[in-house]
Specification:
- The protein has helices spanning 40-50, 68-75, 88-101, 113-119, 139-149, 166-174; strands at 14-16, 26-28, 58-61, 80-84, 106-109, 125-130, 150-160, 177-185, 188-195.
- With 199 residues, the protein is α/β, with parallel strands linked by helices.
- It has one domain: Vaccinia Virus protein VP39 (Rossmann fold, 3-Layer(aba) Sandwich).
Length: 199
């Protein structure tokens, strides 16, 4: 007798923007492997840490997925938001959402995030969101890239399946990043890093 594999935990088919001008607007969530939209609780906590008004900020959502983080930032007044998404189908959905919300300050690029950040001018963003697939070895190179493109005193948000270990925090210091705040919601660990001067 064989047992059936455990079903994959169902993800929401849509998420809502929780603050700003597009509050309660729905964002579709595609049924694709590795796609995990940032939970409402986590986004609410993050923007409590950052402040509700991002006027004047330039934001980069490097592994955009559903676009929940980037559109949330745009909804809260960010001057510029760039969404990077490698999967063509997701990038198309992000562009549809941009058009529906008339989000003129949002740009969607269907590209590889690491390649794009390597070509980006240094110190181009006040805030960088990093939420790569948990099962891909992308976090270390993504952090190094983000540390280069974020301004001094700017922030890098990191979402992962486990808390940053002590050795990871030491590595962050060599990049000029330090842990500012951290939290957990279920299986999601989230961290807000700040760029400081390298030792």
């Amino acid at each position: 007798m064989t047992t059936a594999p455990a079903p994959r935990r169902a993800l929401p088919r849509e998420v809502r923007i929780i603050g700003g001008q597009w509050k309660r607007s729905k964002l579709p969530v595609a049924d694709l492997p590795g796609l995990r939209p940032t939970p409402d609780r986590v986004r609410e906590t993050l923007f409590n840490w950052l402040g509700q008004d991002l006027t004047g900020w330039r934001c980069l959502d490097a592994f955009a997925g559903s676009g929940a983080l980037g559109f949330e930032a745009a909804s809260r007044g960010a001057d510029q938001v760039v969404l990077l998404e490698r999967e063509r189908r997701l990038a198309a959905t992000l562009n549809e959402t941009k058009a529906r919300l008339k989000a003129e300050l949002v740009r969607v690029d269907n590209v590889d995030a690491l390649t794009w950040m390597a070509r980006c001018a240094p110190e181009s963003f006040e805030l960088v969101f990093l939420d790569p697939p948990f099962d891909a070895p992308l976090m270390a190179p993504a952090l190094a890239a983000a540390a280069r493109v974020v301004v001094p005193q700017g922030f890098v948000y990191v979402e992962s399946g486990e808390p940053l270990a002590a050795e990871s925090l030491e590595a962050l210091e060599t990049l000029g990043l330090r842990l500012h705040r951290q939290g957990r919601a279920g299986a999601v660990h989230f961290h807000l890093l700040q760029r400081v001067n390298k030792p």
